[in-house]
Amino acid sequence: MKDYLPALLIVLLALTGCLSSADYDRQRFFTVVAAGDTVHPVNEGYLDEFIALGREIYAPTRDLISSGDLSFVNIEGPFMDDKRYIEKGGIVFANYPSDLDNLLWAGFNCFSLANNHSLDCGVAGVKNTLDLLDKKKSEPGHKNLVYAGLGRTPDEAAKFSAAVINNVRVAFFAYTARYNRAGRLCNDYSLKGATGDLAMAEGAQLKIVSVHHGEEFRHVPSSEVVNSYRALIDAGADLVLGHHPHVAQGVEKYGRGLIFYSLGNYAMGTVSKRHIKLNGRLYSIIARVRYRKTGKSLYPESVEIFPLYSDNANDLVVGGNALRRRRFVPEVLTGLFAQHVLDRIELWSSQVPGNRTRFIREGDVLTVKF
Known about the structure:
19 strands; Purple Acid Phosphatase, chain A, domain 2
């Protein structure tokens, strides 16, 4: 069995060196990059390993992430390291706060805070998370930091985030349809509510909706999820970013918008094998959508899908070849491993009823055909 060592950063840099945001005309284009679920929980027993890795967790994907004017990730759980508030028993996620600096270094500036683990540390976790982000946004160099989905009050939790980035008026909405703990400090998803929220952002040139929804480890979304996400586009959303299944699902060009039904995991700090029982594969994607500015309007000109492997427990084996997993470090796939995962993305996209999206292979990247 032949071993492929994904830690060879020279190869990755050679492949992603053209991804810098400096490589295109910012006056003519606006780029969104999106990655999935991310958590490095302080109570999983691997905290020392996370801290030792530090920025190295994000180094292989940094060029890609930082190529966005707006780069999105779902933060699965609050930022909290005070163990008085971290409950014992069950699955409880809490990110160590210093990792926020690593995420910002990687290029992320847009965070969904709405998911089933958002309230794992109660009110204290919500306050600590928002205090940390508010402080960071006030510092030089982080004025374009965007986050939504949590609030110190229910009214604050229900607000979307508005920002002007690269001369584009962006409205960012974050919701969850999944809860481990009930509470009104996290923004609850309902189609009626989201439709009303979209109408309130009528001045925005780009409306991005993040939804934590769906069934874990399922590669094809339910008809309820499909219909709901399409309805968001009909209501005015330009881009719907789904997450929670922890595996990649299909991609759809629908009407005037784009839907990523599930981005899968990005940097998930758990060593789980639960997916095996459901025949799920821990394949993920990083999406990059480039919009052309035309007057006051934006039009999607290119959609790129980069295959990602984020299984912390198992190597990826394809045709007798093994990609050694590097625990907690997401890897952009190349060669036969990339082609294997992209085959599945196309398959899962075709299994979404009514999805007529067509794709083109450009090396190790899948693009949407316009």
